[in-house]
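Methods — Computational structure assignment.
A single polypeptide chain was analysed. Its primary sequence is given first, followed by the predicted tertiary structure written as structure tokens.
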Amino acid sequence: MLSSAAAPSRLWTRNFSFYFTARIVSMLGDAMVPVALSVAMLSLGYGVSGVGFALAAWMGAFALFVVFGGVLADRFHPRPLMIGSDAARFLIQGGLAAYLWFGHPPLWFIIVGAALRGIATAMFQPGVSGLVPQVAADPQKANAVVRLSEGISAMAGPAIAGMLVATTSAASAFALNAATYAVSGICLVALRLPRYEVDRSASTLENLRTGWDEFRSRSWLWGVILIWWVLGVFVWGPVTPLGAASVIAAHGNAAFGFAEGAFGAGCVLGALAAYRIRPARPLFGGGLAMFLFPLMPLAAALVPSLPLIMLGYAVSGVGWAFWSVQWATTVQTQIPEDRLNRVAAYEIGGSILAVPFGYAIAGPAGTFFGIHRLLLVAALVGLCCAVALVAAPPIRRLRRAPAAVRSARVDDGGERRPAAGRDDRCAAVRDLGAADGDA
């Protein structure tokens, strides 16, 4: 049922090298934010609720605007939006770092800054998925390498942030985060992408409707999003603020950074596995890996010794990274390229729209029910979501896209090429039939 062999392709082109550098540097800075924000909010006296409100403002703004980011990316091109987003986030995070250095920022300032950063990220994120087929001939390898870099960043970022907040201040972590956006923007400017014709005659409403039609026509796609709603409210939302409070209370400020770093190390291993292993039914294979994910909230709930907490976070990261590669590759190879950014925006917005609710209620619910009890509930819900992923027929049965459908129009020059449409891809699927088989 699994295949570890793939047709050889050149991955490390000039374009992919710049794209990879932009992603790993940006993700390194992003990985520092949860630790820096949690420590900053707790040290400023805003408590777990303050952490939850700031994270909810970021995620809520992101979820509300990401669909428009997808429409703009398909209507024009994702790269200008991504560069502008990097510039905006550089200014926002740099301003927060300066305020933390020289004063005591009020809660509203941090929340407004988080919301603005969420809007900027909403303009950036749809292009992350849309650019992959343009810079890499093998999306699965590219996604695995990017996920590997994300794991490395998730491992190094929290550890760096933990050391910085323990030895200096949270402001240093935010300043470094701001610098990473500058590097990312420069690398994106350096890309030389193939151009393709796009239809700009449709209105924004028509573009939104087209993206929605593409989204709702695929039961495997909206099925995963429904499961992610449950995961967002009960697991992803609470696990960061509640996990931070639990681990920091038991083992100190730096311990939460080490735990998050261990999660990143697990992501590295999961991405390495996804680089080689190609399930014939990718979402089913990824769903099996998600049975490892609940170990993170479980470790935060039980708060054993720090090495055991780190082990739980690491094993959880393995499952999360393997699923993420399968999911990203499936979306990128099953959706027509000229509509990918819009569909990706609906997918991203839908999958995380529930997370702000989880962030916002984490503090009050933790006070009422108890932090450790809620983390145990999160572990149980995570397990149930993994069961749902492998049990739902549209998700379980979806097969990997044939190679001809996955082939990207990639070069390092500026040749103008037409965008692929639905009819081209459907014809390729009909011609190839069961080309992938059960290999």
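Note: The first helix runs from residue 14 to 43.
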